[in-house]
């Protein structure tokens, strides 16, 4: 992809873009356990571009140096404005609007006239165009026009407008045509700079294609060979399927049936007639399943996974070198010669830090300088300067205990022996166990019949027990720590309980007022009640590890959500154009003669109608999405495909086969590859420690605290001991000098596979290594990084 | 596992055991492209034990040194006899007989009286006992009794005998009891020393269990929570399934249905009633599928794969160190002091080599000595001695062209210009293309209706064209090279064609004689005809690579065959005891009233009967295996489980769920892990080269030829150029001195993941490294080898 520094930066920071500028305005000091979300994304490198811009701004003396973009204050302001979260939120808002238009257009869930939807669409297109023009303003022209993304967006806007006009004018003279440009809408989602992750997934798929193509051809060849064999073996036997239709007589039908068998969807059924005829024929099907279902499908996974790994490594290497490259550029802008080496003067360094992080406290700045300028020589050398971005990303905490507000307001009461007893009780393990038992008893009550009045009273009892628990915890622990940003389970607890309380009260009110209970509210209450049971898991350490890993990879899984959304959307639009209103769903109580054949006589006696799949149709976007989800799960997809083939044409099966290939063979395998990789990284992290150069240095200076020391549940207890440990440690001047400021070191807490891998890679580049030139970085190909001599550890 | 050197050797060489002793008796010299199968298994270390024994034998002066087993000539003979292929074949034969007894016992495919089967079983048990006694003779007592394998076998023999006696005497008084010991039969297959691979797979499963258990519990918890939710959400709605039964009203049924949904087997069906009732309920099922089907199943794969890798690495490290350990022991037996270092004298070394490989040619021995004793100092130092086993495993080829026999017999005719033209023609690419086209045309003819006489004549034409092709090739290429051991596709071609020829002739004869064509022969002819099409793949390079990889991992896949066999056998025996004759299959043309309900009125209106699954039953071993295969494929397994639950008891579903957990969650995932690993190794090999120390040395001495230079199809052509290259190379004295003997270096041809990984690992142990002491080696645990600092290449 041809694009340079200025533009790549938008890629790099897209993930954390919502929180990014907000982050640089957030105050660090004073708050224990305050978590800065963007810095949490670890090695994601959110600040290099800011630093480079700031360096250009600070070094106004050297204003005319050759850097590839404008650095006038306006340009910088424009750039900051482009990256401002409101602008990005607006873009996403318009993308959502644009995509959800399909809900209102024919075939619609909520029909709106064509005029209304087309006006909204034009509005969205204008917004996209505006965003693009803004982007062009902050990017060098050459770079802008070289980028295929921008061209894509413009082309899509033009095509959509043409389609709108053509469709509108044809509609005006009552000719119905196809709104084909609707399938292009996901282009906006993919191509806006903020969707780097989705693009990466698509690139990953594109790179996998050549490798997978050969395996796929071989696989097709195998299926065809088996089809030919089946035709010869079973075609003339006069066998019948369960439904009485002839069995394996047409080569195309056979090929389709055997393709379905690969997905296992028709597994024993397709074999039964031949098996009933002669037991030995089962060998044919067993051979087929072993070769095509087990071996070929595993090979597909292997190919996809292998490419995913290669590609991931390449992207990470690229990012790491780009980051290094930008920092060197910034250094070159600010450097002055002192003795034999080039350095950055302390004053310049301070100005730079202040520009990049305007709200940084002076003690924090002092600490950073201390780490950067070890010898206190009044300047920062190149190696230390290159680490500045990482340094700014490391979280700084102040070691001071926050006292409980109640302690501040009424110290006597709070410190009374009764109060202390309560606090000790709440902190005790038994307190947790008691509540675990309560939850389990609650589970049994939930399973019982709730129309029994005794049980519905019990529900109130449980609810109040939970509320008491929360109040007791708030009494014991400092509320702001209790609701710390990473205290996922505390938030979960409180939200579930409050929601349950509100819903239960609402339901009771409605019930007593109108003698009628609202189904929706009741459902919500039920789900909330059962979700409460989740808390038992958290008490068991082994479970918590697994759940934490799953929650940690959650955000990255949203990438797949985006990917799936794009593919589903395109297939849904095509499906809606091709199949809408061919299949109708009638209310089960409705006794129309057509209800059993989904309103289409062609479905008479079909498996589709017999299984009552009428509601699986393409009559609106929501139904189409649910149908596509069912196809993704694979089972019975041949029945669905067969049904739609009956109401249209046999060729419709190609649509379903295509969907299977794209979604199940490509996307689901990438998803599995992603989960595998995430778990492997989690496993290898469990046993080892990755330290970056900075982390080592901070440890040497003795100004870091390990993340684990300030972990979840035990935070306040830990804090106490830690504090007393420090007060006994008064002799340590170095620590005192830094006024209780410490770096939080998060070595075991990398949230994403990416961040961790980047850390690993960076810890392997030598500090002097300036990396390859920019052009080369941008053209890295995955095959470059294959090790010449794979090592043992490496390959197994 | 407590066991020492002598016994572990049987483990190490089990895979290649059939060919091993045969191999050491095979003559090396003279034959170009002769492949020694045991040496092909790469780093499998077939000779260390032989070397150690031989060293003890050679060093008779030092006879009384402390080595852990007897080395009298008888003992060695007994040991060789134990390892002789006839003995091993006999053991496998008896294992097969024992396992296949289930075919003849009630419920039998071919019923035999109890007396007959029990006599055969006693015979097998005697054979196993004999083998065990023999093993005890060649193993130190202490070691023998410490080994759980031997205890297992003895216990199983005793238990089987008890069961036989009890069952027999009860049968005599007409009380029918259960032959429970039949489920123990696979113990013999697992526990005989030759089944190292299957045991390893079982160990791998056992080691995975603790990790997987926690994920599984969490998964169960999730399923139960969703069940509870489903009960509350749908239980009171009065919904009905397609079959009219109440929908989601019983928590146990719900849990089973949701477990089935994880396997996707009832995918849209289980959702349809709720979805028809209210579209929003689909969200519940989509959430369930994402969490349990996609995420949890991927996590299972990740856990299994991770453990598989760890375990594999550990085993390989163990093997490599054991090998090193044995070679050091052998060195210590033979060493004498020369100057400051210990060495082995040339005379001793020669005797040793002669004992280990009695048929080694003197020029080959010279070459080995040359590599081992570089400075020609008359003795071999320790480092070189340690490599002896590898050195003996490396294949030696003589570089001389074999002339075509026809050329020898009638040189004038063979070298005539017409003959040369034919040869050039056959070697030309176009010749291959022409035959590819012929095959494709043949494919079309096969697809056409064969009752047309023109088409059946065409079949004769194609057959003769193929025969002509083979004859031409044999005329052009040297026949022994054409049928070289690795010329898989040549063998394939010829066998397919000859078989097709024989079968077609036989069919025609029968047809013309009796006006009746035998179905079996016709089927075979058809399959052979279609298999011919496979040859097209070989012409396309990219396909050949994939196919070759698949064929290469084929033998290792047989391990999984063994594993699956063991698990299937146990489940089949249990299933046969529990479900036999509950479900009957009637011929489709038979019109008994019970035929439609499989002879069991309990199945009336069940999905089992409706789908005509009557032949899926446990009435004999073959049917049970096919049914278990269908359960492995997963689809419709709930229908099968439901059917058997109806005819027995709802608890029968546990059997099916258990089977799913064992086979699909554990074994199929290990299979996928294995394929992934094999492909990754194949990929990393494609781009890199692994060289062992010896290979480097051989290269330095200039006495190696790269494997690729003498590859498949092009072998004879290559030979020519290579030969002329050498004749122009006369000045090279080193080569001449070695009389045309060269080492074949197989660096890119490691057949198995194991062999390759062992090579990689060995190339990483320093030559001086003596490895940890034996006890430690035997107790290596996988967690020892986790890298302290995972590297970037490593983890991604």
UniProtKB/TrEMBL annotation, chains A, B:
Entry's transmembrane regions: 85-104, 110-130, 151-170, 212-235, 247-265, 285-308, 430-448, 454-476, 488-510, 516-534, 546-571, 621-647, 654-683
GO CC terms in record: membrane
Main localization, broad class: membrane
Gene3D superfamilies recorded: 1.10.287.70, Voltage-gated potassium channels. Chain C (1.20.120.350)
GO molecular function: monoatomic ion channel activity
Domain (Ion transport) ranges: 82-310, 428-684
Membrane topology, as annotated: Multi-pass membrane protein
Protein's name according to its UniProt entry: Ion transport domain-containing protein
Organism encoding this protein: Equus caballus (Horse)
